[in-house]
């Protein structure tokens, strides 16, 4: 039985239904029509005079090829611009930082000529010594009047002087550094290029003129002496000059006087004075000024009363009230050993001691 829309007797042979089946394979679907290279004008468009019946449609493949070519050109231009800006950008390449010099150091013990004078009251010792007019603590390290140099501004000179003073305070006045408990306060100000030498000096002390901890800081043997008065007396000066167009040089010369008594001694035990003179030379490049760090180039230390026969490279081992220097001088110097520093020792003048 036929469907509602079919004749009662079905579709006649050769009728539309059969024709539809016969030409179904050649019906042009929508994608085929869109891909056609020729497109017929509409009736409205053909009404124009002399208008052709069809027009040529642009090739989709050609459009894609042109777009790809433009994209490749844009990528090439961007890549070339990036290379050009990387090679010749307006700020220029930062200059390579030079390596810091190694610190050269000398530690000279000063032996007393007799017994070390002492007193119960540390203040009276100061009053009867050459340290009587000295300032206390950091006040004895004043900053000089500063002025610009040929290649460094006044502000940069002030920064160099301030940083040098900060290092001197940390390495000479901090109790934890003086007693050997800490080195970090001083280490934090050392230029990174000198840290290996600094660390090696404390890990493996040597009297070779380069690796003595007492060349970096004032370090008193905690097994021998302790502070009897934390008001350390100081006097000295700072001076800034231009070493070259890229380096500021600060020279420091200070005398520190410490009141000491034997470790573990009661408060009423006699105290004595221990004097350390430090002559230091610092260098500052522009990176050091920016990071507030120092390059310590030269350190010359004279300290007493000390015994010449004792090694003063790792710790300073003061002679205390009533003690005398042992006989004998410092260890001998081998002139064939170019890596060793000459053994030096001096005599502490009587005028440098308190009058008792």
Overall residue-averaged pLDDT value: 83
Number of strands: 9
Classify the secondary structure makeup into a structural class.
Answer: alpha+beta
Q: Which stretches are poorly predicted, pLDDT < 50 over at least 5 residues? A: 89-97
Major pleated sheet: 7 strands, mixed
Determine the fraction of residues in helical runs and give it as a percent range.
Answer: 25-40%
- Work out the strand percent: 15-25%
Q: Span from first to last CA? A: 144 Å
Order of helices and strands: HHEHEHEHEHHHHHEEEHEE
- Name the overall outline: elongated
Computed CA radius of gyration, to the nearest angstrom: 45 Å
Note the total helix count. Answer: 11
Strand order of the largest sheet: 4-5-6-7-8-3-9
Concise synopsis of the structure shown:
Helix content is 27%, strand content 22%. It has 356 residues and is α+β, with helices and mostly antiparallel strands.
List keywords for this structure.
two-stranded antiparallel sheet; seven-stranded mixed beta sheet; 356 residues; 11 helices; alpha+beta; single chain; elongated
Please write out the topology.
Layout: H1 16-23, H2 30-34, E1 38-40, H3 43-46, E2 54-56, H4 60-87, E3 104-111, H5 122-127, E4 135-136, H6 154-172, H7 175-178, H8 184-187, H9 195-203, H10 213-216, E5 225-244, E6 247-262, E7 272-284, H11 286-291, E8 295-304, E9 346-347
Parallel strand pairs: 3-8, 3-9
Antiparallel strand pairs: 1-2, 4-5, 5-6, 6-7, 7-8
